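Priority: medium. Attachment 1 of 2:
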């Protein structure tokens, strides 16, 4: 029997986030014993041993509610970042904070500016809350900040800049980004999504936290899902003016971040040696892939993240399927705005070499 209760009108125009088949299902369908998963943007090197030890110690306390304010984590994170504790908001992944910012600050029909090819949840959440997404095309895979400024109107309430950008991995020049932040009117929120912040090693990458002192409308988002390897626990954070955190506390769930995630994040911050090792291994993998792709004649966006958008020159869906039959799972660019490309996560050197060999054999 079909349900006769209609959902909200806006949902008729929104598709659910596409979730692929499990690795087990794919292995069974193709009859492949092993698949190297280079399609999800995860840290294949895992998480710190300190995290694993702490999680085992927390198992006897699962019957208790987590700290709804994440005070201990906020305190440690504030010391680590050199910011005030009341400037931090801990979320169920940084994507929850995106949703809460939109819920708290965007009125119906107000506008939010974003790139056309970027993290898709900006646009989805703006639409769900009744706002109007204003989409500005990337320029050579990079945010066109000049065009974004030109699209500001009286209805603009929020601007999203993903830096490094997902799915291109590109960054905005620090001088251009600083100038952009200074030109945006102070009544408009600038949401600087830095989920891949730790992987950016270029001298042209902006260190944004000092700008919080002079720009109360700036929100910086980061996560423990990437370099810290805690994607399965869903925990991220935002750095912002205390007046903004106060509004987010009004619209968040009371216990939005579970106690295991909070405990794991606290230990992850302690182990900066593990963090540095992951960054180094990513740099080495990135350099290897760039060298091999150059020799093969493939172009790609210059990435400062832990993934690469590679321009194959052929249908991304077709190449993705062919690689899959060789035990290499990548993301087709057709689903990301680049139909003749593929997105590949930078993994272990063994995985990276296997990918290049499979690409050569195509």
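Attachment 2 of 2:
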């Amino acid at each position: 029997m079909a349900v006769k209760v209609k959902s909200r009108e806006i949902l008729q125009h929104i598709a659910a986030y596409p979730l692929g088949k499990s690795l087990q299902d794919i292995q069974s369908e193709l009859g492949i014993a092993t698949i190297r998963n280079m399609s999800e943007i995860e840290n294949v090197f895992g998480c710190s041993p300190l995290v694993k030890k702490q999680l085992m110690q927390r198992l006897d306390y699962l019957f208790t509610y987590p700290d709804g304010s994440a005070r201990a984590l906020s305190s440690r994170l504030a010391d680590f970042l050199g910011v005030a504790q009341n400037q931090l908001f801990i979320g169920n992944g940084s994507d929850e904070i995106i949703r809460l910012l939109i819920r708290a600050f965007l009125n119906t029909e107000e506008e939010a500016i974003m790139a056309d090819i970027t993290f898709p949840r900006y646009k989805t959440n703006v639409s769900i809350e009744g706002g109007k997404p204003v989409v500005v095309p990337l320029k050579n895979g990079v945010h066109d900040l000049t065009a974004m400024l030109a699209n500001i109107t009286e209805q603009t309430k929020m601007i999203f800049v993903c830096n490094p950008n997902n799915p291109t991995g590109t960054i905005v020049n620090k001088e251009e980004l600083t100038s952009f932040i200074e030109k945006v009117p102070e009544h408009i929120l600038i949401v600087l999504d830095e989920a891949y912040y730790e992987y950016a090693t270029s001298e042209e990458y902006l260190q944004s936290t000092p700008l919080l002192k002079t720009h109360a409308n700036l929100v910086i988002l980061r996560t423990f899902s990437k370099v810290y390897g805690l994607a399965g626990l869903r925990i991220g954070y935002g750095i912002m003016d205390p007046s903004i955190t106060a509004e987010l506390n009004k619209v968040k769930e009371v216990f939005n971040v579970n106690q295991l995630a909070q405990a794991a994040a606290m230990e992850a911050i302690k182990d900066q040696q593990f963090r540095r090792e992951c960054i180094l291994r990513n740099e080495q993998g990135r350099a290897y892939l760039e060298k091999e792709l150059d020799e093969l004649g493939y172009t790609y966006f210059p990435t400062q993240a832990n993934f690469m958008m590679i321009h194959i020159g052929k249908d991304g869906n077709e190449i993705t399927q062919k690689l899959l039959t060789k035990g290499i799972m990548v993301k087709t660019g057709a689903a990301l705005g680049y139909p003749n490309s593929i997105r590949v996560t930078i993994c272990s050197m063994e995985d990276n070499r296997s990918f290049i060999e499979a690409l050569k054999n195509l």
